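Repro:
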Amino acid sequence: MSGGGPGVFVVGTDTGVGKTTVAVGLTRLLANLGHRPVPFKPVETGCAPGPLDATRLWRAAGRPVALTDVCPFPLPLPAAPAAAAAEENVTLSLADLAARAAALRSRGDCLVVEGAGGLLAPYGPRFTNADLAGCLGLPIVLVGRVSLGTINHVALTCAELARRQLEVAALVLVRTERALAPHEPWNARLIEQTTGVAPRGTIPWLSPTEMANDDRLAEVVGAVFPGTALDELLGF
């Protein structure tokens, strides 16, 4: 499957970088603007017992479909999708996940896909987030954390995307710690110099109360994609 309608694929430079923060914020922002987003978190690991990230996306979208459609593979083991699936004797298929994404597209006016882990997190022996992103043909939002090492993580991820001829539609940084670190003022300019991709903006550190508030996440994501930038990103 390639193309086929408005949407976005949110992927991280690593796990725990703020992908869900950005994906939930995008989903809620779209809903608040009158769109009908349908989220898709095809695989979530570390589910004990439910898929917390997928539930956040589902709630932010206004519960447009069943939660089991949003996340068809909630897996208990907190590991890469391939390992978590093998632990449950589940085989993940690129063709199957692409077909599920296509079915969800018809249920709304845009699709918000959140991958599991970083770009090359494996779903199977020869099947990663990068393969899924390429198959779905959606604009890629790359999320990186604001921390020491992020320049290298972003550069490596951008290089792999370029090798696969997949374009970064937007790069968003997320501050996961409250304190401002000395390296932070250099991150954006050095990332752009190194990769040619300028970060669109940085999601500020948010308190646990703010993180639990979908409308607050929509607000901070909206600041990164002001005006018509969101429509341009998703292809409306």
